[in-house]
Specification:
Layout lengths: L4 H10 L11 E7 L3 H13 L5 E5 L10 H4 L27 E3 L9 H4 L1 H17 L6 E2 L3 H13 L2 E4 L3 E3 L1 H18 L3 E4 L3 E7 L2 E7 L4 E9 L6 H10 L4 E2 L3 E10 L4 H4 L6 E5 L6 E8 L3 E7 L2 E7 L8 E10 L8 H16 L3 E4 H6 L5 H6 L10 E2 L8 H14 L12 E8 L4 E2 L12 E3 L10 H18 L1
Parallel strand pairs: 1-2, 1-10, 2-7, 10-22, 18-19
Antiparallel strand pairs: 3-6, 4-6, 5-13, 8-9, 9-10, 11-21, 12-17, 12-20, 13-14, 14-17, 15-16, 18-20
Helix pairs in contact: 2-14, 5-14
Length: about 475
Amino acid sequence: MILLQNHQQQLNGNRMGVDRSMSKEKYDVIIVGTGPTGIFTVLELLKINADLDILMLEKGKDINERECPMKQNPGQGCLNCDSCSVVSGWGGAGAYSDGKLSLSPKIGGHLEEYIGLDSLKTLISYADKIYLKFGAPDRVFGGDKSKIEDIKGKAIKSQLKFIPAKLRHLGTGYTRTVLTNMKEYIESKGVEIKFRVNVKEFIIKDEKIKGVISSDGQKYKGKYIVTAPGRENADWLSSLAPKLGINTSINPVDIGIRVETSAVITEQLTESLYESKLIYQTPTFDDKVRTFCMSPYGEVVNENNQGLITVNGHSHSDIKTENTNFALLVSKTFTEPFHEPITYGKNIAKLANLLGGGVLIQRLGDLLEGHRSTPERINRGIIEPTLKEATPGDLSLVFPYRHLKGLIEMLDALDNLAPGLYSRDTLLYGVEVKFYSNRIEVNNNLETKINNLYTAGDGAGITRGLMQASVSGIVIARNILDKE
């Protein structure tokens, strides 16, 4: 834990007893969204200029209030909360995530295109030190060169592309601890944080940002606005951009399944590397399928994702199961005249919800044989599902044939690296969808064409993970400080 008493004493002395908790008429900086982009923007601003008046607005709850009702009452199903505590609130979706900090500049987003490779490497190292300062564990996975070469050789023989990467794993428990430490530090510096405030519009005059308006009509005025809404509000930002005259480009949409198997089967992929990044170009349709978010000894979980029940996976720092789960995602880039990849992904997830009332589960053997899985078939298998709420069903009724074929071909190829994965008892959950926004047009400082309006992170379609989202906040903060 970080000791905050000395910071608070210094704060009170420097500001001559001024109460910074009171709402102001105007702020220097307003941050919309308290995920890693918003948090790291504030941390960097405070490091250089602690006298800025900063307001953070978050539609979700404080981190100590973020608790999914399904955890408290197993079996009741998703309650479709107005703001899902799994993906919204202090820390963003990362608070409930596996807490994987990729230390490779080649994984987790497009920041290299804006700031260059060397700068990205430097800032990843810089951000990593900040995570350590706030309590992240010091173990780094992926440094075993002999293991990397072994997996790389097997991957090549299976026509899989292996991307070695070092990562720091927090685990779900540690993630919340780190984020709580960050929040306490930020509050000790006098930053005002408002929860359950859903920003809907921007106030703009003469091509310059002037503030934001919440869903209840409240106006918040500020000189600089940083909007970092995360994936959960990606479509809101995409729909707003054309009204502001801001161009967007279509990102690929990632749709797939979460695979669950015995941890023993995937041990050689996770033991020293923790997560193996593997990409496959499918032989039938030449589509890109990739592994994502491996969770060794973890659990499969529900997410309320923009009103839809989708699937994800976590590994805890202190709780272990006998299973490992990971996502297999098919990436598709659409061309003219189609401009709605998020809607496409939503409709596939909606079909799974329609058929199963939420997430569907199916044994691989049943899928290959054309059977709908039943509770009896799943109970006969050797893999016990960790997501008890999932409904046994038939994923072939949900996915387009092209997607389903690619997923099956990828599982077959992975069996060469993890023998036993392509077995009848392997469990498949659907649907997992990553709602990346159409990428918002920004300059190299992540500023839009609207003067002093910045956007970054996963919700802006610029990053795809905790580390690059954090770095994007640092980039924005430094540009604001340069202007100041």
